[in-house]
Amino acid sequence: MPSPLQPLTPVALVTTSTVEEIKLPPESRPRLMEMGLLVGTPVELVRFAPLGDPAEIKVRGYNLTLRKHEAEQIFVRPNT
Q: Largest Cα–Cα distance in the chain?
């Protein structure tokens, strides 16, 4: 049975997950798509800034920084 979907932010650090759904507003999605963050893409939560915002993720071989409220709208399935 597959793992349940969860937001990107509570995923354990340095755990690889697969993007399953992006619930950001339509005006924010093209920017993420241009940077390679698409449904089906493996991502890894690298770290949070000292005060918890922003979050740094690794996607397609480079590190990308997202605001915490954006990362909470990206739903992933942890890879087992």
A: 36
